Amino acid sequence: MLVLAHVSDIHIDGSERNTARAARVLDHVARLPVDAILLTGDLADHGAVEEYEIVRGLLPTGVPLALCPGNHDVRENFRKALVTSSENGPGTGGPVGEPVGEPVDGPVGGPVNQVLRLPGATVALCDSSVPGRHDGLLDDETLDWLDHVLSAAPEVPAFVAMHHPPVTLGIPYVDEIRLGEPERLAGVLARHPQVVAVLAGHAHTGAATTFAGLPLLVAPGVVNTLLAPVETDAYPPIDPDLPPAVALHVFDGGRITTHFRPVI
After folding, report:
1. Which residues of 51-63 are buried (b: 16+ CB within 10 A; e: fewer)?
2. Does pTM surpass 0.90?
3. Are the C-beta atoms of residues 42 and 11 closer than 8 Å to each other?
4. Are 115 and 122 in contact (CB under 8 A)?
5. Mean pLDDT in the chain?
């Protein structure tokens, strides 16, 4: 059995409030018997170096960890603070403190894609951020990288993760800034039947649907919770007082089950 702790949207901004919520969640999942921790974007709120330094201090050790940027992140600062350097240049290794397998090469301002190779599973985290925009896109470099990662281990179950959901969730505020051109991702996934599920964040609410014939599992928010699709006069309809939450994905070799859990 494989258990993945899926954390998203911690939005570290230097405030004690956001840092405390993120610390509570990351400390909690680090104490669970999980095989890996995934962070799917919006780790910083403004993409400042100082924010990523706080994030770096919060990252658990002793458990495999992988992360990718979201629309609030800035690739250069993200890479500088959270991705180790290798002999190939800056930003070509894994998250600080935990190796994630094969290095990720690319230009400093290019996408930050990472692969986590676990016993019995491959987890590919794709950078869906678009500098200067809030909607997402997987560029040619990222899609080629994903195709290569999945082709390298066709017999191993795989999970594909990113920040932006590739389908509408019935939440206008999120749907307007979802992943663009999702059919290109669907084309890659169709060539790799070992993919078990697609994982995403961005929505600040737990959700489960399908994409390209696969489960699409969206992690809840840590910084706050989106109160959709309920009717509300607030825009965006966010509740900052609900407890942060995580998704726990349990894969038994034939079926994936997701538990959404608040962290009180």
Report:
1. bbbbbeebbbeeb
2. yes
3. yes
4. yes
5. 91
Q: Which residues of the chain have pLDDT under 70?
A: 84-108, 228-235
The matching CATH number, chosen from 3.90.1150.10, 1.20.120.450, 3.60.21.10, 1.20.210.10, for 2-262 is 3.60.21.10
Termini Cα distance of the chain? 26
The string of DSSP letters for 94-143 reads: -BTTS--SS-----TTS---EEEEETTEEEEE-----TT-SSB---HHHH
| d(C-alpha 182, C-alpha 21), whole Å | 32
pLDDT at residue 89 in the model: 30
Can you spell out the DSSP letters for 236-264? S-EESSSPPEEEEEEE-SS-EEEEEEE--
Helical axes 140-152 vs 182-190, angle rounded to 10°: 20
For residue 250, give the nearest of 221, 217, 228 by alpha carbon: 217
Tokens of 74: 């800035």
Predicted local confidence at residue 45, as pLDDT: 98
d(C-alpha 160, C-alpha 150), whole Å: 9
